[in-house]
Structure formats: C-alpha cells, structure tokens
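The methods section describes the discrete structure representation at length, but only in general terms. Since the whole study asks how a given chain folds, the encoding of that fold should be made plain. An entry of this sort, consisting of the sequence and the corresponding backbone structure tokens, reads as follows:

. . .
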Amino acid sequence: MAETNINWSEQAAPTIPTGDVYFVPASDAIPTESDKGFAPKGLTRDVKSLEPGDFLLLDEPLGQIANDSGVVAHFNHVPGMSKGRENGRQGVVFGQLVIETDQEPFIMEEAAIKPFHSAQSAAHEAGAMTMANNLDGRRGRPLSFEPLGFYKYPDGQVGLITRFDGPVLTQDLLFWNPDRVPTDAEVSRAFSVAALSLGGMHRYGVAHRDAQAKNVGRDNRGFRLVDLADAERMTLANSHEYAAADLGVYLGSLLHPDEINGQIPERDYTEPVAQIFVPQYLRIAQGSGTLLPQAAHLSAAHINSLAQQ
C-alpha cells in the first residue's frame, strides 16, 4: 500500500487555510499506455510544481468556476462525516472544500483528502480512480471515487482530494460486525457487489493489488472500490498472478479476517462465496468481449480453492 504519514484522528484533523487555486483539464487525470502505472505524466508534473499551501483542481467536476479569475480555496474539517473504522482511514480527512472567486459566491463540495508522500503516488491513485470510473463508459456509475484535485502541504506532502458522496459501508464492517449478523439478502447483495467490482476491473485488465474486504463496499451511489494506490494494468506475463492474487486477498480477508472491534462470532461464508460470488465474477470478468488476458482466466474450482487457503 502507498505510504501516508499524516495520521490525524477525526477529532484533531486541522482546517486547511486559504491557498491559491490552479486548474487543469479533467482529461489530464486519464492515464495513457505510455504513463508509468496510472500516474499521468502531465498531471504528475503539475502536482510536483505546486507551491506549499496551493491547490490544483480538475476543471470538469467543478464546472464554470474554472474559468473565473482570482480563485482561492480552503478546506474545513467536519468531524463525524466518515463512519468507518478509525484505523482504516489511512490519514484521510473529511470535510468541505470551499472555493471562492472574484465573480461568484463561494462553492462548497463535501470532500475527503488523503495524504501521500509524493506527487507521483497521489497522481497514480487519481489516474487509477479515473480509469476505474470510465471502464466501459461508466459515467454516472463509478467504481471508485471522483478525483477533484490536489493540495500541497507545508511539509511537501501531497493530498489527493476526492468528492465525498456519503459514508461507504465496506464489507469487513458488514460481514464481521461483532454486534450484528448480516441478513441473507445483505450477504447476497454484498457478494454481487464484490463480483461486479472486481470482475469489472479484471474484465478490462486492471488489478486492484490490495483487494481486501475493507476496500470493497457501497455507498448511496452504488458500489465502490477503495484504495487504488497499488492498482496496476495486467499484462500477458502477470495477468494470472494478479487476478489470482486479487481474489485470494479478497476471499482471505473475508473468510479469515483479523479481529475487528472485539470478539467476533464464528461465521462461515464459504457457501455464498461458491454460489453467488464465483459464478457472477466469472460471468463478468471472463464473459464475451473481455479484455482480460486468456492467461488470467481462472476456473470456479481454482477460485473456490483460494477461499480455503
């Protein structure tokens, strides 16, 4: 996982003061085949050039404001916006991105800021999110979060700003809630979400590379893949390894989880994995028109065996 070393709690996270705003086209966040990983070269360069305290925002998500002059922004931390586990946030801060211009009243976007050590790491995740959200023309039905831009911290670290559409219920919190056993309908829907999410990425030759249950979930807009910092394109050489690794990590974290929030009752999800997740994943990832390299095609028996490891 990409490292972050800002680790504010929800109570202690600071408000980011007003800084100058620079805009780049949203299309700059779309990676190309020539880019290193999913970090677009031009976007990485622009993020690196930011002065501490400044913002770099993508124009399309913010509309006409990108054409105004004298734009400044700041970020107000709002406690309690995220409902996930504290130790699962990786230093992410939630609040309101406030944008002001000489011409228009201020605009507020509910947003999250995730800190990274380098511009390339932040641009990589932004590119991976953009790629995931546009697989098969998925406009309006995202697989991940929508990047809004970047902020350069005084110490030189870079924050990736994404739109906040509401709390995400990740599958570790659903399946391994010590206070509540999920219903059969919730289990069925969750495995369908996982099959659509991972199957959708693999169908187009993209590996998540950290597909733990805590990184698969849904919010009020649909299903979400979280933490694409390590996502990579599959190649003929690595496709089988990457596809199997994603599925092994997901099923392993789901069926053999670390303890979360105290004692967890014994639960066995092996049967719905075999009956719901596996066939739906295979239908989506390896169906007609898939771009997944043939070398990565896994059998149902192989995937079920991963669940036993």
Observations:
- The chain has eight helices and twelve strands.
- The radius of gyration is 20 Å.
- The chain has a mean pLDDT of 84.
- The helical segments are 41-48, 59-62, 119-133, 171-175, 184-203, 239-255, 270-285, 300-307.
